[in-house]
Please model this.
Amino acid sequence: MSAEPVLLSADHEGVRTLTLNRPHRKNAIDAALWTSLADALRAVAADRSVRALVITGAGDAFCSGADISVPDNAHPIYRMRALTDVAALLYELPLPTVAKVTGVAVGAGWNLALGCDLVVATPEAKFSQIFARRGLSMDLGGSWLLPKLVGLQQAKRLALLAEDIDAEQARELGLVTWVVPATEIDAHVADLGARLAAGPPVALAQIKALLNEGASSTHRDALAAEARAQGLNFATADAQEAFAAFAGRREPSYTGRWLIERPPIRTADGAMKSENGRTDA
Model:
């Protein structure tokens, strides 16, 4: 057994990479890793320096699902609460997320990848909604994600038969965004992360939320949500920067900064204090 943490975290130029680190169990998620994942996702949501998130696995696997080999006498409702926290936190993160899949991604491990916005896999990757083979039903959001991604009939095929599919089959079904050779996946994901991290953070958060909400909302609901989101975007310095960069024929530099400053506040001694903390007589 390794003494290393069950979850590794590394930052590079606005991209945080979380690595499931139980390679001896093909990164099966035990109680400690569920807790670490939830804590790490909360930290990502609270850290505005993180502009994109990559989730991957150590060794030759992405994630072989929940670790059912470890005895756990806790009531299932408490065990499932840990899974629910991770699934909700990942799906609702206000920044782009990428799953980098090498090797197996099965059960909750596959649904962890599907909870990301984009999925990059090597040709050797294998996927399965393995639950039925274990006498279980789907979890980590799979019953909600799969029908939206592939349609009800294909979702039933994958879940009821619990068959294995390869990366190319997953891509054809719309469950993998890119299939990239193993020798190129690191560079591909690094470039993808850099492109996402360079984007306008407020606008990307609004785009992600609109697409997620639009999957289960009416057309009228979507139009109203789009109008609200666009109002937020126009109030950022990024919208102004994008137009200026276009006019100047240069690449934009996005910050996510709020464009509008609040008026200064008069203090008790009559001085005017601005939002940046400066005080004028």
